[in-house]
Structures are given as structure tokens and as C-alpha cells.
Amino acid sequence: MRIRMLETVRPCFPGGTILKSGMEYEAGANKHGAVYAITATGSVGMKPGEFEFLTAPAWVLDIWKEKYPDMCSNCKIEEEPKC
């Protein structure tokens, strides 16, 4: 999954990872659809409206598109890996 930041997100604690507005990041989601950016120093969670989806699996978009359709409008659906 890939996301683009719409806002700069700073951590609540000093020294944490900053996600910069306009930058693209690899991302993941938990089983409830909560999205986090993956960086070289760890992962950082974001709130709705702080990012937009570039690519995502269909199940994540199904969770998000009903409440936040603008965040999903330009997203390409990723195919699920086959085991």
C-alpha cells in the first residue's frame, strides 16, 4: 500500500519520525483498517484527512470509502498476494 501525505504529521514526543506533506510512503493497515506509514525508523499512524491512498488492497478501501470517499477516489486497487 502507498499513501501521500496531505499534511505534515509530527509525533507527540521529541525525536519521533515526521511525515512530510507531499511525500509518499509505503504503508500498512491493521485488521480494522487503521493505516500507518512505514519509515526507516519505524511506523507512524495517521488520522483521516492527513493522507490519501495511492494504492491499497480492496478490503482497506471498503472500510474507508464509505466514510472518507475523497481519500480513496484516485487510488489503484492492489491485488492480494496469492499463497
Describe the fold and architecture.
- There is one protein chain.
- With 83 residues, the chain is α+β, with helices and mostly antiparallel strands.
- The protein has 2 helices and 6 strands, in the order βββββααβ.
- A 6-stranded mixed beta sheet has the order 4-3-2-1-5-6.
- It is globular, with a radius of gyration of 13 Å.
- The chain starts with a strand and ends in a 5-residue tail after the last strand.
- The model has no long low-confidence stretch (mean pLDDT 89).
Question: What descriptors fit this protein?
Answer:
single chain, 83 residues, alpha+beta, 6-stranded mixed beta sheet, 2 helices, 14% helix
Summed up, what is this model?
With 83 residues, this protein is of the alpha+beta class. The protein has 2 helices and 6 strands, in the order E-E-E-E-E-H-H-E.
Q: What is the typical, i.e. mean, pLDDT?
A: 89
Low-pLDDT stretches: none
Strand order of the largest sheet: 4-3-2-1-5-6
Overall shape: it is globular
SSE string, helices as H and strands as E: EEEEEHHE
Radius of gyration: 13 Å
Please identify the structural class as seen in this structure: alpha+beta
Largest sheet: 6 strands, mixed
Percentage of residues in helical conformation: 10-25%
Helix count, DSSP H or I runs of 4 or more residues: 2
SSE layout and pairings?
Blueprint: E1 2-5, E2 24-29, E3 35-39, E4 42-45, E5 51-57, H1 58-65, H2 69-72, E6 76-78
Parallel strand pairs: 5-6
Antiparallel strand pairs: 1-2, 1-5, 2-3, 3-4
